[in-house]
User: What shape does this take?
Amino acid sequence: MPELPEVETVRRGLQPVMQGAGIERAELRRPDLRFPFPAGFAERLTGRTIVALGRRAKYLTADLDDGWVLTMHLGMSGSFRVIAGEATETPGDFHLPRGKSAAHDHVVLHLRTAAGEAARVVYNDPRRFGFMSLIERATFDAHPLMRDIGVEPLGNRFGADLLAELFKGKAAPLKAALLDQRLIAGLGNIYVCEALWRAELSPAAKAAMLAEGPGAADKAERLARAIREVLQEAIAAGGSSLRDHVQASGELGYFQHRFKVYDREGEACQRPGCGGVVERFTQSGRSSFWCATCQK
DNA sequence: AAGTGAACCTGAAGGC
DNA sequence: TGCCTTCAGGTTCACT
Assistant: This one.
């Protein structure tokens, strides 16, 4: 499910409940997600206070008061939801969002919020491509999961110059380079397709074209701007709800209505005066959606 | 270096 | 109605 805008939306939804909350109990309903939970995972969470909720790339991070960071990845189908109030003895004592099954509620954090209210944060993940781990804050950036992650596209360092530098000499297609988390962090299939359409660049074009050749600087500028804009607009819209992505509040994101090419094969290109048709082809094992008429 | 395909796992959707 | 195939927002690894 989640690319950077969806993870950021989840973070913003969970923050009011989780920041400053105490973890009274961590309930694991199975021994693993994509990977086994770390040894003593539930016990190490119990009694901790969540100091801050953050995001790095597509990872959600909860800094704990003992210097460790609960680090969570949502894979393809992971989601969180918040249930207010005390847990009862009755199984299923809460309302499940449409299309969600309690069979895939794998982790429940029983919290006492900063305001003293009881709340549960439930992690649901049908495909279980997500995972959770504990990483020491002091060495967080050097951790194997984090050390090769690239630049944050909404951070201050990111821009046309850095983009050109990152893609310099790369023979890989733009699509593959943009999906490479070691270069830029947080982009996935949807927002790469959308950013390339906005920048009028072909997903099959060589990444190095942003660093050398005719109009390179202009192309890099267009793409850097397109990436920032599409991510910011998607976050403002609460992310994209394709199948089951819901904000922690239960509301659906609505950016999917603003897709220009993603999942729009056969539709007319929306660029004024273009007249092209959105096509689809497979690249890096993923569907690329694009308009061959205006994306060069 | 860069591309492909497969793997992990479940569910939804479409064809017959 | 059921059965079968295909596809899905991510990541990693083995293999050309």
In short: Chain A has a mean pLDDT of 93. Chain A has six helices and ten strands. The longest helix of chain A spans residues 216-236. Residues 34, 75-77, 99, 101, 104, 125-129, 170-173, 176, 243-244, 283-285 of chain A lie near DNA strand B (CB under 10 Å from a C1').
